[in-house]
Specification:
This protein is of the alpha/beta class. It has two domains: 28-117, Leucine Dehydrogenase, chain A, domain 1 (Rossmann fold, 3-Layer(aba) Sandwich); 141-267, Rossmann fold (3-Layer(aba) Sandwich), CATH 3.40.50.720. Helices cover 41% and strands 17% of the residues. The strands form three sheets. The chain has a six-stranded parallel beta sheet. A three-stranded parallel beta sheet has the order 3-2-4, sandwiched between helices. A two-stranded antiparallel sheet has the order 9-10. β5, α7 (172-181) and β6 (185-189) form a beta-alpha-beta unit. α6 packs across α7 and α6 packs across α10 (267-286). The longest helix is centred in the N-terminal third of the chain and has 23 residues, at 8-30. The two termini are 30 Å apart.
């Protein structure tokens, strides 16, 4: 018996459709379209592709999309001034500064210059604090996508043992907070955890976000567990590059109950959740009811 494949590509298309339908209703009933501004500093090839895809999907969802491309030599003060203008623009509901930034810039200071209500990446310290204390927050897109996949697969998560391998501010820590809010019993582990394999073996839900290809082996997984592999690692084999996750997929698929493949699992959910966050930010800014994308089957 092999694990069910959790099809993030298919589910992300469903989520984008739900966002697009909600945006259409806003336009028809209230005459407002959510707006997302993306800022790219420098010419990192991967970032350029990602920003271009964000723009395409934002417009496809019926939202307004603005791209601000700045040279790598841009002074931090100039970037801060741009963020200030976007903060003050009522047509802009979401602001995303593409990371990484050039080395001369303080990424933390740049992120914290964004209005927390427009911080659709969910990285601002106020959103981090609100999430950690159970308040309404903008939630980082990748952990939100993982949660939506888990709820679609399992329904109610209450009482399940969850292990998150990885403690980054972008994925691991917010993922743990989201699982706690769903009444899971949560362990945050990492590359220096003693007896990491034993921690993983007791998990009903295992989220791997450690950034090491194939680190989580098949015999580390509890039979029937649901495995969410956040890792995207490029490796070379026989002179060809391919993407693999943090989980040894071939070993895990023989043990787990369900698992996300790489590629095609968590990855497609990130931009879909960015669109959902932008819609949410728009609704909150206007004091309108916001959609609940985390509702199972909703």
């Amino acid at each position: 018996m092999t694990a069910d494949r959790i099809d993030g590509k298919s589910f992300s298309a469903v989520l984008r459709g739900r966002v697009s339908a909600a945006v259409g209703r806003l336009a028809a009933e209230r005459g407002v379209a959510p707006g997302l501004a993306v800022v790219l500093v420098g010419e990192d090839p991967a970032s350029q592709v990602y920003v271009r895809n964000k723009g395409i999907q934002t417009r496809d969802a019926g939202m307004n999309s603005w791209e601000h491309r700045l040279p790598a030599s841009t002074a931090q003060a100039e970037l801060m001034a741009l963020i200030g203008r976007l903060n003050a623009d009522p047509a802009v509901h979401g602001i995303l500064v593409q990371l990484p930034l050039p080395g001369h810039m303080d990424a933390g200071a740049v992120i914290d210059a964004i209005d927390p209500a427009k911080d659709v990446d969910g990285f601002h310290v106020l959103n981090v604090g609100r999430l950690g204390t159970g308040q309404k927050a903008m939630v980082p897109c990748t952990p939100l996508g993982c949660l939506l996949l888990l709820k679609e697969q399992l329904g109610d998560l209450s009482g399940l043992d969850a292990v998150v391998v990885g403690r980054s501010n972008i994925v691991g820590k917010p993922m743990a907070q989201l699982l706690l809010a769903e009444n899971c019993t949560v362990t945050v582990a990492h590359s220096r955890t003693r007896d990491l394999a034993e921690h993983c073996r007791r998990a009903d839900i295992l989220v791997a976000a450690v950034g090491r290809p194939g680190m989580i082996r098949g015999d580390w997984i509890k039979p029937g567990a649901t495995v969410i592999d956040v890792g995207i690692n490029r490796i070379e084999e026989a002179g060809r590059a391919r993407l693999v996750g943090d989980v040894d997929f071939e070993g895990a698929v023989q043990v787990a109950g369900a698992i996300t493949p790489v590629p095609g699992g968590v990855g497609p959910m990130t931009i879909a959740c960015l669109l959902a966050n932008t819609l949410t930010a728009c609704c909150r800014a206007q004091g309108w009811p916001e959609p609940d994308f985390a509702k199972t089957g909703g």
